[in-house]
C-alpha cells in the first residue's frame, strides 16, 4: 500500500466538477479511472475523496453534462463497468468553468505576485 | 420516480462501488499484496462505502423518503410494543378530533352557513329605537334623508293565507320593501324579484316565494308567466346547506304596497299564488335568513324615531352602507 502523501491538498470547493469534466474530455472513463487520473496527473497532490467523487458524478449525470452507460472494459471482455461520457452540454459547461477558473486564478496571482513596475 | 426505477438505480450504485473496490484490490494485488490484504487495503483507501452511497442518495434527493420510512417503522414498532398505550392514544385522538369537528360544524352552521348575499360585509342591520315599530313613511323619509345609509330596505314578518285549489292554509311570510332583494344582492333563479317601484301606490302586487315553498307547494313545476306579473323561480342556492332551517320562518315575500302603511293587502297576495295563477317569484329562504343573521347587531345605528303616523312594520331595516363608518 502506498504511503499517504503528507503534501496532499484538499480540492478547492467547486473545482471537482470541472476536473471531472476535463478528465472526461479525453474519453469515456469509469469512476476508478477518473479518480486515478486525477491522482496521477497531480502527482498525488490533489486528494479526491471517493465520498465526493461518486456524488459528483451522479450530480453531473443528473444535470445532463455527462451520460453513464454500462460497457465492457475491453472489446473481448465480458466484464462491464459504468462508463461516464461527456455530453455537448458538458463541453459547454467545461468551457465556462475553465474561463471562470482562469479569471479567478489570474486575479489571485495578481494579488499574490504583483508585477514590479520599473 | 417509480419504485422499481429507484431499486434499479440503487442496484446500479452498489454495483458501481463494488467494481471500484474490486479494481482497486486487483491493483493492490499487482503491487504484491495478498488477496485478503489487497481487499482490505482497497476498502481502506476507498473509505466508508455506506457513507458514499448515502451521499449519492442524498444527491438524488431520496434520503428523506428513506428516513421517513425508517421513522414510520420505528414508530410502528413502538406502538405495537405497548398496545394499551396505543389504544388509549388513538381513542383520545379520535374523541378529541370528533368533538372539535362537531363543535366547528355547529358553529359553522349557526354563524357561517349559507352567507350568500353580495358584499355581505357591507350589509348592516339598522334598528330604530331599539326595535320599535315605525311607519312606512318614516322608512321612506329615512332612506332619502340619511346620507350614511346608501340603500335601505325594510321587512316585517306577517301572516298570510295561501289558497291552492280547495285548500286554504295560514302561512308565515315577510312583508318587504320593493328593493329588498336588490339591497341584499340576491338574484332570482327564475323570473325576477320586485321592481323598485313595486312598493309604490296602486302598483300591481307581487309575491316572491322561497325555493322550498316552491318545491313544497308547486312541486318545482314549470315556470309560467301570467299577468299582472311574471311568474318565476329564484336560483336555488348552492350554499344553502340547510334549507329546512329556514322553513320555520316566512316563506313568501310580499312586496310592499302603498305608502299608506296598511298591512291589509298581503292576505290577498297570498291567496293569489298558484301554478299558472300569476304573481309568484321564488327566493331561497335560507339566504334571507342568513343575511338576517349576518347583521352585526353591535353596529346598530340608532335613530331617534319621529312620531310615527301609521305603524306598518316593525323596526328591521337592512342597509347597504355608504359612508357609514363603524
Topology:
The complex is a heterodimer of chains A (118) and B (326).
Chain A: E1 9-10, H1 16-24, E2 29-30, H2 31-41, E3 46-47, H3 50-63, E4 66-72, E5 80-86, H4 88-112
Parallel strand pairs in A: 1-3
Antiparallel strand pairs in A: 2-5, 4-5
Chain B: H1 3-30, H2 35-46, H3 49-60, H4 63-81, H5 83-112, E1 123-126, H6 136-145, E2 149-164, E3 167-176, H7 180-184, E4 207-210, H8 211-218, E5 253-255, H9 265-271, E6 281-283, H10 285-294, E7 317-321
Parallel strand pairs in B: 3-5, 4-6
Antiparallel strand pairs in B: 1-7, 2-3, 2-7, 4-5
Could you characterize the architecture of this molecule?
The complex is a heterodimer of chains A (118) and B (326). Chain A has 118 residues and is α+β, with helices and mostly antiparallel strands. Chain A is built from four helices and five strands. Chain A has helices at 16-24, 31-41, 50-63, 88-112, and strands spanning 9-10, 29-30, 46-47, 66-72, 80-86. In chain A, strands 2-5-4 form a three-stranded antiparallel beta sheet. The N and C termini of chain A lie far apart (52 Å). Chain B is of the alpha/beta class. Helix content of chain B is 43%, strand content 14%. Chain B has ten helices and seven strands. Chain B has helices at 3-30, 35-46, 49-60, 63-81, 83-112, 136-145, 180-184, 211-218, 265-271, 285-294, and strands at 123-126, 149-164, 167-176, 207-210, 253-255, 281-283, 317-321. Chain B has a seven-stranded mixed beta sheet. In chain B, a hairpin with a 2-residue loop joins β2 (149-164) and β3 (167-176). In chain B, α1 (3-30) crosses α2 (35-46) and α1 (3-30) packs antiparallel against α3. Chain B starts with a helix and ends in a 5-residue tail after the last strand.
Amino acid at each position: 500500500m502506498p504511503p499517504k502523501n503528507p503534501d496532499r491538498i484538499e480540492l478547492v470547493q467547486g473545482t471537482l466538477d470541472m476536473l471531472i469534466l476535463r478528465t472526461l474530455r479525453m474519453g469515456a472513463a469509469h469512476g476508478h479511472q477518473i479518480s486515478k487520473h486525477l491522482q496521477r496527473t497531480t502527482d498525488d497532490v490533489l486528494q479526491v475523496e471517493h465520498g465526493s467523487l461518486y456524488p459528483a458524478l451522479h450530480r453531473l449525470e443528473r444535470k445532463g453534462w455527462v451520460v453513464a452507460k454500462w460497457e465492457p472494459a475491453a472489446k473481448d471482455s465480458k466484464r462491464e463497468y459504468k462508463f461516464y461520457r461527456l455530453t455537448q452540454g458538458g463541453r459547454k459547461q467545461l468551457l465556462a468553468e475553465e474561463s471562470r477558473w482562469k479569471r479567478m486564478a489570474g486575479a489571485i496571482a495578481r494579488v499574490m505576485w504583483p508585477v514590479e513596475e520599473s | 420516480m417509480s419504485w422499481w426505477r429507484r431499486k434499479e438505480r440503487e442496484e446500479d450504485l452498489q454495483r458501481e462501488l463494488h467494481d471500484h473496490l474490486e479494481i482497486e484490490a486487483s491493483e493492490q494485488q499487482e503491487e504484491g499484496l495478498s488477496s485478503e490484504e489487497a481487499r482490505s487495503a482497497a476498502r481502506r483507501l476507498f473509505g466508508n462505502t455506506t457513507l458514499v452511497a448515502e451521499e449519492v442518495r442524498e444527491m438524488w434527493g431520496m434520503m428523506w423518503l428513506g428516513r421517513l420510512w425508517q421513522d414510520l417503522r420505528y414508530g410502528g414498532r413502538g406502538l405495537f410494543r405497548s398496545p394499551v398505550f396505543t389504544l388509549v392514544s388513538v381513542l383520545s385522538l379520535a374523541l378529541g378530533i370528533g368533538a372539535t369537528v362537531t363543535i366547528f360544524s355547529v358553529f359553522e352552521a349557526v354563524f357561517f352557513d349559507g352567507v350568500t348575499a353580495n358584499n355581505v360585509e357591507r350589509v348592516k342591520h339598522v334598528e330604530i329605537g331599539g326595535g320599535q315599530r315605525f311607519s312606512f313613511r318614516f322608512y321612506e323619509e329615512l332612506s332619502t334623508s340619511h346620507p350614511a345609509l346608501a340603500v335601505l330596505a325594510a321587512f316585517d314578518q306577517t301572516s298570510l293565507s295561501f289558497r291552492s285549489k280547495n285548500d286554504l292554509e295560514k302561512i308565515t311570510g315577510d312583508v318587504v320593501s320593493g328593493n329588498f332583494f336588490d339591497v341584499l344582492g340576491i338574484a332570482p333563479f327564475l323570473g325576477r324579484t320586485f321592481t323598485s317601484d313595486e312598493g309604490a301606490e296602486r302598483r300591481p302586487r307581487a309575491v316572491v316565494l322561497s325555493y322550498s315553498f316552491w318545491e313544497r307547494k308547486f312541486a318545482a313545476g314549470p315556470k309560467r308567466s301570467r299577468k299582472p306579473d311574471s311568474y318565476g323561480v329564484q336560483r336555488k342556492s348552492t350554499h344553502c346547506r340547510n334549507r329546512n332551517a329556514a322553513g320555520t320562518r316566512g316563506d313568501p315575500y310580499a312586496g310592499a304596497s302603498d305608502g299608506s302603511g296598511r298591512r291589509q293587502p298581503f292576505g290577498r297576495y297570498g291567496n293569489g299564488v298558484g301554478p299558472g295563477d300569476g304573481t309568484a317569484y321564488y327566493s331561497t329562504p335560507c339566504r334571507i335568513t342568513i343575511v338576517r343573521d349576518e347583521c352585526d347587531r353591535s353596529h346598530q345605528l340608532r335613530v331617534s324615531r319621529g312620531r310615527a303616523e301609521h305603524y306598518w312594520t316593525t323596526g328591521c331595516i337592512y342597509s347597504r352602507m355608504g359612508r357609514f363608518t363603524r
